[in-house]
Design goal:
It is built from seven helices and no strands. It is mostly helical and 169 residues long.
Length: 169
């Protein structure tokens, strides 16, 4: 993985990906490393012993998952515009894993509690309009993903998401 072009941000202008170095074999290891890294970052945010603040929760979430974002952005765009059988195979393998990864984050009760606490007191936090908008977008994203469901209903949702992804690919 040390020579994987996704491991570090690109030094090219506008941080464009180094397309000349990317091989189909680079995607799965980068996806897997990106998901592991992202989960660790999210766990740190969700279980931060300090009270939730905009910076230690929302800004931290915004900054998390950079490796996963790099590989996912390149893969999604290339797979949509210039696919091949190997890319299709990677998509089939990774889609359910990425869905489960998203569920693990968006259905995390401790993380949602931090986001929700900030959302509930957003008017008293003296946030600029852009920060309020970002906080509201995160709250809506979590709620729409099922963060307010009971644990039993979250388990059902995860199972439904898993089944729908199996049918899709």
């Amino acid at each position: 993985m040390a020579d994987n072009p996704f491991l570090h941000p690109s030094t090219l202008p506008y941080r464009l990906p180094p397309f000349d170095r990317i091989k189909d074999a680079d995607y799965v290891p980068a996806f897997e490393a990106g998901m592991r890294e992202h989960r660790k970052e999210v766990e740190t945010i969700a279980h931060n012993p300090a009270p939730a603040t905009f910076d230690n929760t929302i800004v931290a979430l915004e900054r998390s998952g950079q490796l996963l974002e790099r590989v996912n952005t390149v893969f999604s765009n290339l797979n949509a515009s210039n696919s091949n059988p190997e890319m299709d195979k990677i998509d089939t393998e990774m889609t359910p894993k990425l869905t489960a990864h998203d569920d693990a984050i968006l259905l995390d009760g401790a993380l949602f509690a931090r986001v929700d606490s900030l959302f509930q007191k957003r008017a008293s936090q003296k946030l600029d309009p852009e920060s309020v908008q970002l906080l509201e977008r995160y709250h809506v994203m979590f709620v729409r993903a099922g963060a307010r469901l009971s644990d039993a209903d979250k388990a059902k949702l995860r199972a439904l998401n898993e089944r729908s992804e199996e049918r899709r690919v």
